[in-house]
Write a structure and sequence with these properties.
The complex is a heterodimer of chains A (about 800) and B (about 90).
Chain A (H helix, E strand, L loop, with lengths): L2 H12 L3 H20 L4 E3 L3 E10 L2 E10 L1 H7 L9 E5 L7 E5 L10 E6 L33 H5 L4 E4 L31 E3 L5 H5 L9 H17 L29 H35 L4 H19 L1 H7 L21 H5 L3 H33 L3 E4 L2 E4 L2 H8 E5 L5 E5 L4 H26 L5 H26 L4 H46 L3 H16 L28 H8 L2 H9 L9 H5 L9 H39 L19 H13 L7 E6 L2 E5 L4 E8 L2 H13 L5 E7 L3 E11 L2 H21 L9
Antiparallel strand pairs in A: 1-2, 2-3, 5-6, 6-7, 8-12, 9-10, 11-12, 13-14, 14-15, 15-17, 16-17
Helix pairs in contact in A: 1-2, 6-7, 6-8, 6-11, 7-12, 8-9
Chain B lengths: L2 H11 L4 H22 L1 E4 L3 E8 L2 E5 L4 E5 L2 E8 L1 H8 L1
Antiparallel strand pairs in B: 1-2, 2-5, 3-4
Helix pairs in contact in B: 1-2
Classes of the chains: A alpha+beta (about 800), B alpha+beta (about 90).
Amino acid sequence: MKRDKLIKKVASQLNLNEIEVADFIASVFDTMAAVLSKGRNINIPEFGKFIVREKTADGVACRYVTFSPSKKFAEEINCNFSHLTPVLVSSLDLKGLKEIRITESDGVADDADFVSFVFEDTETGIQFEAPVKEEETPVSHDNIVPIADEIPEDETADAPYLVPMFRSPAPVPPPEEKPLKVIEPPKVIEPVLPAEEISVYDLPETLKQDETLPETVFPESKLSEEITAVVSRKSAPVFEETEPDTEEIISAGEKEEEPADEVKEKDKAEIIEERIITEKEIILKDIEEYIKSKEETKETRHSGEEKEKDDEINYFTRANVFGEHDAENNFAVEDIKNSDIKPQNVFESEDAAEIDSLPQTEQQPEVELEQNVFSDLEDFFNSENGSQEKTEEPGTDIIGDKPVSTTVENLAEADTDTKVQSNGKKQILLKDHDDDLDLKEEILLLLMSREKAIHDLDKYGPEISPEEIQGIVPEEKAKDDEVETPEEKESGTVTGDAGISGDIVFEEEKESIYDELNKRIAELEELSAKKEEIEEDLRKSHISPEMTIFEKLVDERTVSVPDKQAPVFPEIIIHDPGDKYEDKAPKSLSDALEDVNLDGVIEHLEKTPSVIEEKSYDDVFKPADIPFVPISNQEHVIKKQRKLLRFLLYFFFVVIFSMMSFFLYKSILTPNRKTPVDTLGVKINDSVAGKINLIDTELSKSSLTLNEFEVEKEGDIIYKQRDDGYIIQIAKFDKYSDALKYVSGLDNRNIHAEIERVDLPLNVTEYRIIIGTFETLQQAKSFFKTSGIMLNFIKVLTPFKTAMPF
Amino acid sequence: MNRNSLINKIRIKSTFDRKTAEWVFDTVFEVIKKSILKKKILQIDEFGIFEVEHRDMKTVADPGKRAEILLPPKDKLRFKPSGEFIKMLKD
């Protein structure tokens, strides 16, 4: 159907001209298009709605029109299928489904129009499936089949996740499986530090071969061996080790087992110190042994041949230490070098007599060698250890050229511990020294004694007399004297003068000690005072309001307490006055004090309060002066007052506003009701005399007949009498159109009414609505009663401006 | 825009009084309705085409109700604006 058919149909139905209908239809659709193009919607009842919508396509905003038919019209269109309702095909277990596809587009849909929900079979892994773009095939409901039946129950039960999949998710490739490699952490090689175990030298091959040597060595050869060993120790960086049982001297020139590069610097220092200490001990031990052996050698001397043998042995051992060239240079005995004595013969003879018979020329080199050794040792100590180590060692004192060791044996036993390894190497385990501990103990004892002395002084106080101290001290001194006296008693030098001098010295020492102690006490007092000041400053810095109150209370209390050291006044003795002073006798204690003129005492007594008044927080701040008014009540009262004032103000403004509005309504909007109905069309205005004349002239001109007068008035309804009968004036209008409208309304209700024009003075015209002529007034009234309701209703419907004022 | 206001606008251009205009207006749309119901299509020049479309039944999975529903076939009215009208809308 097209427009022309539509026009024809409409025109035939309505019996109208086709041209007019065509124009009308054209105007209908043109206006509709214009309205819609302006963006306004059109709602045609029982047909439908044209709705203008906006959308953005390719970034450009555009409008399009949609039509939604009315419900009734839509049902009429869909009448063939309206009885059909949607059917629930199957309950959907979303967990069991692998995929759900919901389309939103109408008609033919592509895969791109679907929103897919893909479900995962396993709990851990999430599988994404991108929608595969199929060939252009119409999608129908047959194509969408739930796959729940295809999935086994076990798998569907364990599919807990619902993964929404949107239109273009990028497929995530599964991660490639790479073979795992076990990477072992790098091994940390810890350096092996020789803490206390020090591997020294491998045993020399010569000595290893000579393990079968007898334990007892020829003394002369032993001496030379020792000397060579001592010298070699000095020159060698590492000390040698000696076995206490065998007392064999290990030859030098051996190699170190472990290189020193592997040791850390710290450990090196420790090792060096330990080595020095052990070396010293060994040297001292060697020296002791050497002295002993020397004493023995004086008693027992070898024969010349045996000595040569010994010298040869010494040469060989020395050659091992220094090399052959050094041995030739250093060794004093040149002749021994060329001798033929074998080492095996050394142990054959040992006679003291033969030793005494040795020539002096052969003995001199030994003495020189000893001197050289001692000088070397001294130099070595001075250079290597320094002077401090000498002082730290308790038992070593160098007297002249010879070092004297008092506790060398003990130290050697305590500080060294030997250990023989399986591979022939020898190690020395060192122990800690007690030298430092001894020193510390001594220092501690001294300090303790000093503190004890100070304590005693404090105990006895500063006023202790020197005699008391003497009483304490002489006992100790007496003991000392007892220790010292035996020699003196033997020598007979002990006299009374010596005791006096000792007392003087003791007193001097005592005084010096007291001076020092007093100084120290003064220092301590100063320090304590400073400490108190600092504490006070700290307290003040961290002061809080509560603390201030507390301090104030404390200050009040302290002020009120009288001083302990009150002024001492002379005693007041009130004697019995007797008869003489009977008249002058004071009546009370105050009178007596006044008599004595001790005003100060009275004032003091008056000032000192008898009872200490304990002040509280309220007493300090005097809260009683301020009248107690709860803040909440005050606020409440103020709030009430404010509310009341606000209410009064509002009320006042409302009253004023209402009065103003009332007066405005009365004066401006509503006309004056008091004015009487001017039936003659003349307004009564006596005040204006000039206007009356005008009215008279107008009346003379007007065609209004005066054969009409008002009979009765009921509200707006006026009953008038004319010559021909009675009429009812039901309304009057300023405009003729309004009057005509009113009359047409009455005509529709079958009430015949007439419009009467009345020209009033001052160019005022009225259009009065008049009903009938009735013969009698009763007939007029009865008519109005029957049709009065309708008349009033019509009057209400008439516009306000044009209606008659009432 | 309501029916009355639309009629008022149309009456200015036409020679019909209001009553007649209303009468004609209602008649036009009644004829349009009948023709659509009868012939399934109505073409109005320079305005558009009213056309009835048929939609086949289809199954839809409703995740909210957890059910699969078979929707019945349906006839639906569709309005396709003409080119001139679209131009007017764009302008």
